[in-house]
Amino acid sequence: MSENTRIGAEAGALAPAPPLPCLSSYNCTERMKPELTAYQQRVAECLTQNILHLVKRDGYEWIGFFTLTTPDSPTWEEYQRRLHSLTTHLFKELFQAWILVFEYHKDGRLHCHAVVACRVDIRTGFDFGLYLKSRQPDRSVAEKRKLIRQAVAGDENLRGLWTMLRRRLPGYGFGRHELIPIRKTADAIAWYIGGYIRKSLAGRGEQHKRRRFVRYSRGWRCASVHFAWNTEGAWLWRKKLAAFARALGVKNLEDMKFACGPHWAHHLKDKITAINDLSAYPTLAHAKKDGWAVAGTYGDHLYEIDVGGAPTLVESQQMPVDTVLLSAQELARSVFQSNPVTHDMWKKWQRVTSGKHVTPKKAEQRS
Are residues 329 and 190 in the same domain? Predict the structure, then answer.
């Protein structure tokens, strides 16, 4: 590591080092709402829940916020190779668990933010007041280093980690870095890191496809992306998918793949959500989400639906009245009969449901 990256009395009066990425701005703490896909929203939510779980499991004193950069501009593949070597060796020596979040800086260079569970208490004795003063932009390099030395003077464990990281990180191809204990609550650090991943996911381009921007160490996570949101839209999707499956005679996901192809959810999502023959909703919010409005707002063509157990007169607010009541059975016929590829699937599925075609699963059951 070059001399200007060292922190401590031995560093002396050196030339100012470039700031770590994102430390000179507050763009990750602004309450912005970038456009994310449903999957990306689940990734961000899982990150938040896993950070909260890690802090609750190990305690504030053992958790640190780690920023890691490289002296050059490696490709994604080269960065991952270096990081794999780092986490396999040095991280396992120093940390019990970690979460890594990758982000591209404005100049296109890749860097990493991490929440790490250390093997020692790194918070007791650390002076956050002096550390925050060292981050003020109007201070000279010498003043900043003096304040940092004073901030960590009473924290022997953290000083030892700094020394270890400063000595060994260059051997793995990494440069400037910073490890500090968390100052506020678990919710604050979870929201802060969540801001980074939301920004990274929202800015993903075609060249970033199939790249995991969040990585975890093994054996401690409490949340994964395999869940569904408990919202009005999710409730409607489950109900309409169930109606569509009944119209097809489908009873499980394996049969759905056989009838509609492996990517059925992607190709049929818009058509399934267009089904509008539900007659009962738990709340008026669910009915409005499905395109209904309370009668008397839009027109004279009224329908009666069950809202929370009570009959309610409603009318369409999203589409012409003559196309409102699209049933799951009508959708099943129209989807498969209008497209030659899906029409062949439809015919094959009709043979399956009539017993004239044997699926691999049925053949296994018979044998």
Answer: no
